[in-house]
Fold each of these.
Amino acid sequence: MSSRLPARLQQRSYVSDIEAAASIDLPWGDLDGKTIAISGASGQIGQVLLDLLAARARLGDHFNIIALRKQDLPPRGSDEAWPACLTQAANAPQPGASDIGVGSDASINGEVPAQKNDHGRVSPVAAFQNEPAAMAPSAGSITWIAADLADGQSAERLAANLPNIDYLIHGAALTHPRAYASAPIDTIETTILGSRTILDLAIRQPACRLLLLSTVDVYGADRSGRAHPWREDEAGFIDPLTLRSGYPQAKRLMESLGVAYAAQYRLDWSVVRLPRVFGPTIKLDDSKAASQFLLAGAGGAAIPLESSGEQRFSFLYSVDAALAVMTVLLRGADGQAYNAAHPAWDLRLGDLARLIAERSGEIAAARLIGSHQSGLSVRATAESLEQASPRRVKHRPPSPSTQTGQSPVEDARMDASRLISLGWFPRQTVMAAIDHTLMALAQRMVSDQVPMLAGRGA
């Protein structure tokens, strides 16, 4: 069976970002000997959290991980569902039951399917000469669990089949704007019913610290003339009679459920409100605007801007977002919400599109060269791509589904003073994050043989 690292782990820049984050001064020792459960573990933030914890394990930390994923996602071995840095290659010596990688992939009824995982190194294509970092197994274990958190019965079954959980990070949600229009009921139920399951699971533990991942969307739209970024104790207007409101309303209710459970069961919990996050782990079908910009840029297309571009948003690199999550988990106050944002990352949407356009030409050229899609010389190939895919932003009207899923908010910046007081700040600049993301996405497109988009006017 062929083996390869996930594309993001073939990018030295991303691996270096993870290693740098893992070296940040946090009370990592609090995790020693503990069990950490993560819902949404195969999602954008979940994958980065697993990579970050793997880096800590390679530094000598000892903990066990329970990774919860949806039942309809592929089992481990998939680039999207299993981070290779947490597993051993099939032909590697068995390191023993205490090593990360000797975990299982099970459903909540205890079934363990056949093991299919055999990650290893691959030779990068010519344009991507970044040597993959060594991903040796380290102390700890990981177990993948397939569960439908919205089925109303998972909490009891999970509690009966899992060891005691010390830290529980709830990141499972439907966050695709297109899903807000195409699957509005699932969008709401995944958040509300899934969060109820996680809260029920948390209160069944002898002692558990719970962290809920929420969103900037809970703030809604400002109608008061407010000129400053949103603080955690503020809120705006959300129109409940729109499809787009299902996601932020459900997240508001998730936070309210946390308050209710804490009052009734004395739960130890906190909330992280995430901004618009991007990074190497975004899905290739992600419909969020920033993701669409990056995917188009990595594929050699013009950057599609389906709005005025004047909206002001807080953005964040996924590695810094994962570090914010761990900071609040280990340092956050009980019952507090924390905005994960920073003034240096507050941008107009159109400005982000233009920054990505500036960098995407060079990245796409490297991808075309590396994937050997042309018999031309390297120079001729790069010149051909430069002509076919100008570095530009293309304004176009939104499709009906895009328009339904778009946020109506014009200013969604967040004040991060509370999180910064815990010692957190973003380690990556906007431009470096764009570069690292474009390179990783381009590598994934090469690995998955995704056709170039140049010349399609995307």
Amino acid sequence: MGSVTGPVAADGTRPSSPAGPTEVSVSSPAPASVPSGLSRRRTSLRSAAPMETQPIRVVGAGHPSQDCFVEGATVFAGRRHIVAWSLPNAREIDGDMSAFLQAVAAARALGPVTVVASGDPGFFGITRLLAERFGRTALEVHPMPSAVSLAWAAVGLPWDDCIVISLHGRPAANVVYLALQQGKAAILTAPDCPPSCLAAAVRRTDLTVSVCVRLGTEDEEVVTGGADILVREWDDPNVVLLWRGQGVAAKGRTWGLPCSAYAHRASMITKPEVRAMALAGLSPWPGAILWDVGGGSGAVAVEAARLGAVVYTVERGADDCAHIRENIAIHLGEDAPVTLVQGEAPDALEGLPPPDLVFLGGGGPEVAAVVAARRPVRVVLTLARIDLLAAMEAALHEYSVEASLLSVSRVRALAGGYRLEAENPVLLLIAVLCDQGEIASPGPSGKVFL
């Protein structure tokens, strides 16, 4: 196998032995013996199965189960796990995931395969990549507690109401804003984006901070305080926790707000029901780059930002731009992750960062084609004219398109009773990139951490 280089990022627990990024190669040593620090699997009936049908065992380092390892398996592990868990014959994994997947496929044709990862490999970990390549039925996953669950346990707080954000491969901008919106966040830092990169933004808030390192080891360290603790030099990997107040009051994120909640021009606003369906189709995740083309009142941009997206909203009208600014100030406040671009698409789209998601509230097939050429995972658009449907589908020919007619009627009082007042029907198109399967559809950037 060729050389595999790049930074190793961690998401889970580790022993107290030193760790760090290392240039490595995926070579072909003898099958790795199972170390004393990890469990050994007894020979089972699975060993008699054809090689290509044997599961790839994905194991959280230090898992106590006796069923995690097969004698004579080819073991893949990150550099720090090889050192910490005495895996001298394991094949090293590093940043080149394509080479890693090729190596796994080749090893699987010859015998059992085990991949050692940190904590819970399904949580910002290697399971996603392996499931995309080999399918979920090819995997047998044996997780340990994730770094996030260990961190919240260390500070004695629940975490079912927090957002989790990884800084591996993405900028730190807007992370603190998302924590303020949610009220609680866990941040997986990176060697090139350590806790100190969050300090300036945290100083402007009332958030409590904890930095957690070497979780699950005898040398575990958890320091809680204000923004000043972030500027210390911390060992990597580490987890930063941010929370408001006592950290126990769950705070939800709302969308589909009534039109009266927004400043807008002569009812030129995406109605709440359409907005809710559009956002459901987009499925924004924390840190997703979303283009809102034809911003109008900015209602979609505001609510997408409340759900964690980093939004670029494009609007040509000066009056509408003023309403967007007003609505951002009312609903999002300072440091909102929304950038307003005044101009007309498609020209105004030049120079924007590549989108993960796009909402088309304006523009015709030409704009849709330009957007599709950027290959966002999902495109959602609304149409008032049904005659444009075929042209829009043609522009999105690389996408699987589902079209629905949304018809809403308001209940109004009439002579001691009620009547229905119909809104204009709207066509909603939800387009999903065809090479994005169920596992690979909207989610984090695809970075994998061992």
Amino acid sequence: MRGRKLVVAGVLTFLIPWGARAEELPQTVSQKTPQGAAQVVALADSQAVSQGAAQSASPAVPEGTPVPAPPIPVLQTEPDFPRGRISGYMFGDLYYNASGDPTHRYASSGADSGQVNIDGKGLIGKDLNGVQLRRAYFQVDNDLSIKYSTRFRLEVDSKELTSGGKIGVFVKAAYLQAKNVIPRGNFFFGEIATPTFENSEEFWQYRSIEKTIADFRGISPSADLGVEMKGFADAAHKVGYSAMIGDGNGQKPENNRYKRFYLSLPLNLIRDLKIEPYVDYEDGVANADRALYKLFAGYELKRGAIGAEVVDQVIHSAGPSTEPFGLSIFGRMAPKPTLAAYARYDRWQPNTRAANRVDSDLYIAGLDWQPYKDVHVMPNVEATQYRARGTAVAPAHHDVQARLTFYYRFSKP
């Protein structure tokens, strides 16, 4: 009997500690389980109870099995500001004046003083030839935040020379933009592109060949110092607007108290058809003023586009009033991604209120070959034909210039 008691005592001595550890184990696991996991377990238990006997027949998860924690949500970060971008372009030509004023004129230094390019202001000199850099842009865009951004642009132009006769540099754009000041409306302050031919030039696509008619004839500046509201009246972006108040002096500082008011309404009510009525007005000294009216229309085709622009300006001054009028028709086509063609015709009447005047017709035609992205090689011809009205006398020679134009764009990043 004594031996049996010793055996029972030994077994109890061995089992009692293990029983106590087995009772502590679920508590320990529940204490170490994260709060989210405990909630998941509670949710699973409640669902299991509500599903009844069918669910109870499935194998139960053994007690003490760790439950995986729920995934940690990824928080979105704000965009990286400020951030900037550098971009620009250059175009220039190899040129030869096949027709023009045959009289060769020279400066005192012996250099040719005849006019090189057709610009609507004078005759070009025949046989003049060379290489020219007509324009280069260097632009920096900086996004300060989602709402505010800036632009600074320098232009290099062969017409703007330094005192030493070298190609000059000037500020073409420098402005601050505040986005969504009103719904779908942005505010601009500084040296801003005017809305006069902004949309028609973008549709024409060949500023590297020639300016649009209003810019070519110099009846409105391409940029002005002022303020502007620009945007869309509807969420579908079918009715746009640009309302601007500027000095009216282009890139030059203000020199009078009068301002120029610009308004354009670009419309895209029908797919692929763009229409833009435009008007601007500037007051002057002694009841002098000027008003410009313009209508642009363009239609995009599958592999090309056709466009037309009409400009009419009324100028009141101390003398007789004048009214320049112009019509421009142009088209472009691209049968292949790397090859395109373009053509344009302009009729210009310097003053429709004068019976005796010299009108002119401008012709442009050429090809556009793109050997690499943003690199263009464009052979083209530009010509002007003069027409006398009344007793006026037209120039004896028309102007013809043959060019091989090179154009490239760059940007980073």
